[in-house]
Amino acid sequence: MALLKAVYNLLWGDLVQIPLPGGSTLGLSLLVMLLVPAGVYFTVRTRFLPFRLFPEMVRLTLEKNGGGERSGISGVQALIVSTACRVGMGNLVGVVAAISAGGAGAVFWMWLMALIGSSTAFVEATLAQLYKEKDPLYGGYRGGPAYYLHHLFCREGSGKKRSVIAVLFALSGLICWCGISQVTSNSISSAFENAFGIPPIWSTVILVAIVAVIVLRKNATVKVLDRLVPVMAACYFFITLFIILKNAPLLPGVFSRIFAEAFGLRQAVAGGIGAVIMNGAKRGLFSNEAGSGSAPCAAAAADVSHPAKAGLLQALGVFIDTLVICSCSAMIMLLTPESLTNGLEGMDLLQAAMGYHMGQFGVVFIAVILWLFSFSTFLGILFYARSNVAYLFGDNWLSQTLYKILALVMLFIGGLAAYQFVWDLGDIGVGLMTVFNMIALFPLAPQALASLKDYEQQGKKN
């Protein structure tokens, strides 16, 4: 436990304290110091890709697949899988927690992290495409950071089957996703108990049974997510849009509050500007997962005509997660009178806000949408795990099935009780994934940038 705590503090604790006006300090964790400069660097190197190529990202979601046979999933399906993982409990409870701790100004910094994070997402997803391999078990392709880390540290023809850094990344991913499995089911059982009074044992058993039927079949995961993710995201978006339109006269005040508190003199004088910046930055960075190496596991599986297409689609995924879904949660909360939410936190706070806007229907809706978000997240992380399990243990159904069973066991345990040890283990896993992934991104980035240049040149010719 002491070792885990030390690693956790190294990754997530404030390693550097920067003094700010009013006596506040800006605490920078190792992960923030890695991801923010990387996002800025890749944004500049891609010539501000999030702004220049946003129309192209949207166009790719509408692009026809062509008449040829596809080996594996489409680029849009890979986007849906990664969106399923990005859109989870963090988009609901995490955003609420960020605003509770950092105020409305945290939303601005959350948006800013999405803009720079999308460039990082492009680079890692394009590299995953460049180093993808045929998948003999599931068909199509597989890949991700473990595979491009392998190529970085093991020269072609060396005969080495595994790289130490790649193995560490793969292990970190599997540990992280086991932790997320517990968090997922615990959130679902808690929300259903609050909304419907259903005992955790029943909601957990039903969840595990449904998930097991899907994940233990060979290729059912992508088919289910293909139908589920667009529907659940659209439902949450349109319900939020209804709430926004109903409270339209309050919008100028909300946006004024967001920008005023993001740079506000009052926050600086009160010593709280550091909390405003860091709560928004951390929520933006770790909700959209850019740089963590998760989404490339889905991007590698895409069968696209050019590697940069997968990169652009994953960059769009960052926008969907943060600028759309996270902003929905922020608006629901900021349009609720503070007097109704004082003293509340987490799911209780969000359900109280929805209850204010839409009555009992709002409380039930949040419980159902959290179930869908968490359910799709679990399916998505098991899709990610395929490539890491294959890298560690080779191509065999035994190892693939055993990991799925382990994740299902964690899902069941988490629904009945929350173990802080496992939660921390998940946080450590994603932190280590990010560190190992960033080791590869900078030296291999020129290949992703060359791919982007080639893609744009082809576009001009056509």
Automatic annotation (TrEMBL):
Name of the featured protein: Amino acid carrier protein
Pfam assignment, any one: Na_Ala_symp
Annotated GO MF terms: amino acid:sodium symporter activity
Gene3D superfamilies: Amino acid/polyamine transporter I
Record-stated family: Belongs to the alanine or glycine:cation symporter (AGCS) (TC 2.A.25) family.
Transmembrane segments: 20-44, 78-102, 108-127, 164-184, 196-216, 228-246, 258-278, 315-336, 356-384, 405-422, 428-452
Keyword Calcium: no
CC terms in the record's Gene Ontology section: plasma membrane
Principal location class: membrane
Annotated keywords: Cell membrane, Membrane, Symport, Transmembrane, Transmembrane helix, Transport
UniProt keyword Disulfide bond present: no
Localization annotation: Cell membrane
Membrane topology designation: Multi-pass membrane protein
Matching InterPro entries: Na/Ala_symport
